[in-house]
C-alpha cells in the first residue's frame, strides 16, 4: 500500500522514521527541514491530520493523532513540533466558509502557521481589517503557504470589539505568506529545526471572509466530534505528544547505553538492580502518561526483564 493511501497516520509516521532520523543533524544545523523530506511529510498527509475532510483533510481522531506525533518525535523533535503546530493551526478551518477553505487548503502542500496572540490590534474597515504588527514563535512559518495573526479589533470609533461574553474579542486573520516579512529570530540551542521565527505586516488589508474567532464554539461550521474539542485542548495534546516521543527516544537510548557502559570500577549499568528498577519505573510512567495501565504494567516487567537478560550475558 502506498504511503499516501495508508489510513493509519502512525504507520505513515513510522515509515518515515529512518529518513527523519538520518536528517536530524542537518535539520538542527541548518534550522530547516530538507525539501525532499518535507515533500515526503506532505505526501504522507501528516500535516492534514486535524484538517476537516470537507477541506481535504483526514479529520483524525485525537488518540491516533497523538500517537503519530509521538512517533515523529522519537526520530526528530523539531519535525514533530512543527507537525503538531501546523495541525493545530489547521483547526481554524472548522470556522471558515467552504470557499475560503478551498482557497487556503486546495493545494495539497498548503499549510497555515502562526504565532501566539499578543497586544496587536486590527482596525475594522469596510469589507475587512487593516493590520499592522509583529508576531513571534511562528513555528512552521518557513513551510507555510498562509500565515495567521491573532489580534483584538478596533472599531471605527476606536472602541475594542467585544465578544458575546463581554470580553475583547480575539480574531484570527489569514493571509498569504507573500504578504509577510519573515524575520530570522530563532537562534536557539534546541529545536532549531522548527525555525519558529517572527513575522510582521504593515497596513495589510485582510478580507472579512479570511478571518474568524476560535473563542466561540457556536460559530463552528464543522460538526464532527473532533471539532467539539477545544482548540487549546487539542493544542495541548500535540505538545504533550512531542514530549512523550522525546522521552521514549531518551529511554530507548539509555537502555542501549546501559548494556555497554560501565562506570569506572563498577559493573555495567545493566547489571545494577537499581538501574533495572528505575528503567522499569520510567517505562511504566511513560505508558501511564498515555493512559495505558495494562501496557504500563507489561512494559515495566519487560524492561526489567530485558536489562536483567543483558546483565546475564
Which superfamily, in CATH terms, is the homologous superfamily of the largest domain? Butyryl-CoA Dehydrogenase, subunit A, domain 2
Taken together, the total number of domains comes to 3
Parts with pLDDT < 50 across at least 5 consecutive residues: 1-6
* Shape field: elongated
Description:
With 313 residues, the protein is an alpha+beta fold. It has three domains: 9-109, Acyl-CoA dehydrogenase/oxidase, N-terminal domain (Butyryl-Coa Dehydrogenase, subunit A, domain 1); 112-219, Butyryl-CoA Dehydrogenase, subunit A, domain 2 (Beta Barrel), CATH 2.40.110; 259-311, no CATH class. Helix content is 42%, strand content 16%. Strands 1, 2, 3, 4, 5, 6, 7 and 8 form an eight-stranded mixed beta sheet that branches. The model is unreliable at 1-6 (pLDDT under 50).
Summarize this structure as a short list of keywords or feature phrases:
single chain, 313 residues, alpha+beta, 16% strand, 42% helix, Butyryl-Coa Dehydrogenase, subunit A, domain 1, Butyryl-CoA Dehydrogenase, subunit A, domain 2, eight-stranded mixed beta sheet
Fold topology:
Layout: H1 9-15, H2 17-30, H3 35-43, H4 62-75, H5 77-90, H6 98-105, E1 112-114, E2 121-125, E3 128-138, E4 146-154, E5 170-176, E6 181-183, E7 197-207, E8 211-212, H7 231-258, H8 273-289, H9 293-311
Parallel strand pairs: 1-4, 2-4
Antiparallel strand pairs: 2-3, 3-7, 4-5, 5-8, 6-7
Helix pairs in contact: 1-4, 2-4, 4-5, 4-7, 5-7, 7-8, 8-9
